[in-house]
Each structure stands twice: as structure tokens, then as C-alpha cells.
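Handoff note, outgoing to incoming analyst
You'll be picking up this chain. Sequence as last confirmed:
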Amino acid sequence: MAITINDLNVKEKIQWCPGCGNFSLLAALKGALAELGKPQHETVIVTGIGCSGKTNHYVNTYGFESLHGRTLPVASGIKLANTSLTVIAEGGDGDGYGIGVEHFMHIMRRNYDLTYIVHDNQLYGLTTGQASPTSLPGMKTKTTPWGVIETPFNPILNAINGGATYVARGFTGDPAHLKQLFKGAIEHKGFALVDVFQPCVTFNKLNTPEWFRERVYKLEDAKHNPKDRSAAREKAEEDSKTDYKRCPIGLFYTEEKPTYESLLPQIKGRPLVEHGMKIDLSKAYEEFM
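Most recent structure output, in case you need it:
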């Protein structure tokens, strides 16, 4: 049964700041789901805590709001329980590359079949503008009043080296392009990362929409080959090597290899939820109740 954007809309009022990049990200995600015809009852959006954590409130599918930094463990558990589901995890750069980075690194090498969308606005937006792992050197925030002195975390390079099998970056200033990246990630069999330049218009006065428009360019326009791992690594470091004067977006790298779930003999034939296991809990009830 075909679905439309209207089917994915909700009645709840969106609570993001006016002009937030999340609005374009949300529109691109709903457009991707509608064009792919993903059934709403077979789609789950898992979020963490932060501005990005409201996303599953605004899409008419199943959703789960997890703990801060714990988006990926919950998403992987849902995928293991029912491999027929389309599972999309979402979080911010602080959620995923800070407190949740240990889960990020290990889920990539396992290659679960799920999509991870990171709302990357280079700071902590919900808590009013502290530096995050992707804040640029020299950026002044509430926690770095004299400027960031740390080297920013590079999610694209870490994803390529860590084993992710679909690695892309988009920009909310180009929602049509972002929608195509989301479609590719959702259709891909394996762990897909889409890091999204998502300007925080309220607290990030450095990485504004105009700042990004002056710097981003599409990898497909540069004839980049996403199956060339070495070339993908070079492109992943281009922004830092050019002092952030050139920031590529698009599909950096992709490859095909078995997913974690496909190698588990217990669920090769059918999803775990269809096994029809019968467990007698009467003794447990007698002991503990």
C-alpha cells in the first residue's frame, strides 16, 4: 500500500526553534520513507536525548525514545528481535559522538542492518550551546569562552575505518539531496551512517546556514567513486586539511558484506518474534509476587 507525506504527519506541534535545520531534516526523512513506500507499522525510529530526540514524535511510525547516548544499543536490540523491521536511529553529535561513541564504534564493525542519522550542529543545542565533539577549533561556546582547543571528532573518517558499509553526509540546506542520501541509507543492507550538517540558528553563530553554503559541494559533482576506500578517506579529511574552507557532502563510501543478523543461525530462517516460543513464568510469579 502506497503512503504519502500526509500519512506520516502528526497533529503534535513541532517544538524546535524557528529556522532550525531539523525542519529540513524531518521533511527529507519523511519524503524518503514515503518514496520508498515503507509501511508505517514496519518502521521504527529510535532517538536519544536532545533536540534530535523529538524526531520520532513528529513522524507517524513506531518510535522509541532511549537514554542519552544509548540510541544504537536500543536500535540494534529492536532489529535483532524483528529483522523484518526498518530501523532508523537518530541522535545529535553530542549524543552519538560523545557519550555514545563507544556504541558507535562497535556497532559499525558488527554491521547491523540499520540506518543512523546524526543531527550534527557542532554543539549541544538542547542544553543551550556547549561545545561538542565536532565543534571547530577556536569556536567560542559557554564551555569554551576562549575557544575550542581540541581536535574535532571526524565521524566520516571513523565510520570508514570502523567498518560502516554506507557512509554519507548531507546538509539541511539541500533537503532534496539529503532525501536521496536517506533513501540510499535505508535501502542499504548493512550499517549506514548519514551525518547531517544541521545548523543550530539559536546557539551556533559560527556554523550558520550561510557558512555552510559557502563551503559545501557534492561528491557526485566531483566524480568521486564511493567504492574506493582510499579516495573516501581522502575526502573525509578534506574539510580539516583545507581549514574547513571546503566541506564535501554526499556518499563517501559503500560496500556490500554480510550483516550481523544474517550470520546468526537462530534467526536466519525467520525473525525472532515469529518463533512462537512458549515460556512458563508461573514459578517466577510464585517466587517474586
